[in-house]
Amino acid sequence: MPATSLQEPSSVRLGLKENWQQFSLLLLINAFVGGMVGIERTVVPLIGANEFHVKSTVLITSFVISFGVVKALANLVSGQLADRLGRKRVLVAGWLIGLPVPFMIIFAPSWEWVIAANVLLGLSQGFAWSMTVVMKVDLVGPKGRGFAVGLNEFAGYVAVGLTAFLTGYLASRYGLRPMPIYLGVIYGIAGTILSILAVRDTRQHVQLEASRAANPASALSFREVFVLASFKDRNLLAASQAGLVNNLNDGMSWGIFPLFFTTLGLGIERIGVLKAVYPIVWGVGQVVTGPLSDRWGRKGLIVGGMCVQAVGLLITALGGHFGWWLVGSVLLGAGTAMVYPSLIAAVSDASHPTWRARSLSVYRFWRDLGYAIGALSAGLIADRFGFSAAIVAIGVLTFMSGTFYLVAAVEAKNPA
Predict the structure, then answer these.
(1) Quick one: pLDDT at residue 215?
(2) Phi/psi of residue 266, each to 5°?
(3) How far is it, in rounded angstroms, from Cα 365 to Cα 78?
(4) Whole-angstrom Cα distance, residue 208 to residue 13?
(5) Which residues of 98-125 are buried (b: 16+ CB within 10 A; e: fewer)?
(6) Which intervals hold domain Major facilitator superfamily (MFS) profile (predicted)?
(7) Which of 291, 297, 310, 389 has the most CB atoms around its CB within 10 Å?
């Protein structure tokens, strides 16, 4: 029995134009996926500090650590599950797992409940977001891959930013709970219904692309793909470490930026603005940087983007007022927009269609492990030396990661 109802082989075609309806549906679904993360960007660290009176920065950022570790592991198995069970089943499973998350945050009697909710959120995101990426890459084929990934991440991270702003606005008027978190209930129900009723699987698109591939498929085990994507292939190694550091600085900003800005006297609504600008610039920018990576190549955008991120972090740490922090947020978003779709496309370029889903899952494992490493390391540094020192340290590491990619990676001759 097939995992899902598939199109007849004669009707399967590759390309964005040819698959625009399913592609657009997956964009909307990924916006709901991003919104589920956005409900936490502004208010959850403040819930820990203000409602549960958690004093340690490491303990407050533990919700990001639990999210990052679980999401990384879910990413690692999502590609294997997608190849065995079908993309749609994994997508639906991700939504069903994520449905309890907003309710657990709303009714949490202790901080441990919030941490537990983020275990489920990490598992949900690892399945649902991974599948929206993989299915769009499946649909468009080798041409325009960067554009497809850019649109996917645009939808997800604009939703993260808008939701971060809305939760900050609602929290400033109605309190940290429950009103801001109701947005997550709406996202969860809508995303689940659409995924079950409207999404079609894309495995036959993979088979079609594989049949046209110039190089024959290699029969690689999951272990072999993991070793190749993590250590053996220089392009995949460079991409994995850059992805890890990219999300390392995002995990740091998620966990400690609200606390940092609070100590400097900002109110929740203005913190919400700063927390919204970063992912909105990140999301919108990818509509431009994704296609540019198809035309110009991936390497320059990745190296340049890591450097722009580093500058944004340094400005945030050393700037003394809202205007500088706004500039830092814009630069952090712009740099991430340059890096994010380019890295996913670079991994896709270096992977055969028959094991691309597994290769992307390994890359996303290392990338999203950065959430946990960033939150933990920033929390430890902040507890010992202060928030500014933690942000500067992560900024320096981000610059070093871009330098490593410059030296290690070899540009694909024809990315598109």
Answers:
(1) 60
(2) -80, 145
(3) 10
(4) 8
(5) bbebbebbbebeebeebbbbbbbbbbbb
(6) 23-413
(7) 310
User: H/E/C letters for each residue in 289-315?
Assistant: HHHHHHHHCCHHHHHHHHHHHHHHHHH
Nearest to 37 by CA among 161, 169, 134: 161
Is the overall model pTM greater than 0.85, yes or no?
A: no
Domain boundaries of the chain, sorted by first residue: 15-210+219-408
Cα-based torsion angle of the residue sequence 44, 36, 157, 400 in order, rounded to the nearest 10 degrees: 50
Residue with tokens 């919400």: 272
- Please, which pLDDT band fits residue 5 given cuts at 50, 70 and 90? very low
Tally of residues, the chain: 416
DSSP 215: S
Residues 15-210+219-408, CATH architecture: Up-down Bundle (1.20)
Residue ranges of alpha helices (H) inside 198-298 are 203-212, 222-227, 234-263, 268-296
> Which amino acid is residue 312, in one-letter code?
G
- Give one DSSP letter per residue of 134-156, joined into a string: HHHHHHH-STTHHHHHHHHHHHH
415 falls in which pLDDT band (50, 70, 90)?
very low
Is the pLDDT higher at 391 or at 58?
A: 391
What pLDDT was estimated at residue 55? 85
Which residue in the block uniquely carries the two structure tokens 């991700």? 94
Among all chains, which residue has been given the structure tokens 């936490």?
40
DSSP string, 27-63: HHHHHHHHHHHHHHHTTHHHIIIIIS----HHHHTHH
Rounded CA-CA distance 243/365 in Å is 9
Q: Please give the pLDDT value at position 413.
A: 54
CA separation for the pair 6, 122 (Å, rounded): 29
Q: Which residues of 294-325 are buried (b: 16+ CB within 10 A; e: fewer)?
A: beebbbebbbbbbbbbbbbbbbbbebeeeeeb
Cβ-based neighbour number of residue 194 at 10 Å: 17
CB atoms within 10 A of CB 40: 28
Please say whether the beta carbons of 69 and 387 come within 8 A.
Answer: no
Contact 160, 279 (CB under 8 A): yes
